[in-house]
Amino acid sequence: MRPDPISIPLTQIDAGTLTAANGFLLENGKNLVGKGLVSKGAGPSASRFLNRGYVEGPPSASSDWLNFDTFLAGSTLMVTPWNGFVPDAGDTCTLVTWGGSLSGSAPVLADPWFGNHGIQFTPRWNANSLVLTAVPEPCTLALLGMVGLCALFVAGVRKRT
Largest Cα–Cα distance of the chain, in whole Å? Predict the structure, then answer.
């Protein structure tokens, strides 16, 4: 049986290292602030950092950083559902912001739950943020197009009679 990730109630890192062998869970309403390293452990879900809270590094003018080595090359950022919330098409969410520069990027994947509710996300990596835009899932878009064509067909048939 895999142990659950640790829960971080309120943590400030001051140039140290925070390590959890089985990954991290930052709960809703909790904070992780400071500078230093959030490090992966060696457990089966070591690279997982589940963020439902708030993470803030030092001001952008600082030469110090809050670094995460939990994301390796080829890792992904996974968007998971929370409390049954389904965004509307066109809604945006700033997923991550940073000061200074970003080294590398990662693919952004949405939990299939969103697709089952007709939504997928388009990521946009900006100079200092990653913004997600909710868009209709392609099958939903095709279905809406078919409904529209059927409505036009029915309207055309009614006009002829």
Answer: 78
DSSP letters of 16-77?
A: EEEEETT-EEE-TT-EEEEEEEEEE-SSTTTT-EEESSEEE-S-TT-S--EEE-S--TT--E
100 dihedral zone (left: phi>0; alpha: psi -120 to 50; beta): left
Q: For residue 128, give the nearest of 149, 98, 94, 92 by alpha carbon.
A: 98
CA atoms within 13 A on the CB side of 74: 0
Name the one residue in this structure whose structure tokens are 């878009």: 141
**Environment class of 67 (CB within 10 Å of its CB; exposed 0-12, middle 13-18, buried 19+):** middle
pTM for the predicted model, two decimal places: 0.58
The rounded distance, in Å, linking the Cα atoms of 156 and 142 is 21
Nearest to 27 by CA among 13, 12, 7, 47: 7
Each residue's pLDDT tens digit, 56-69:
887 766 677 787 77
Cα–Cα distance for residue pair 56/66, rounded to 1 Å: 8
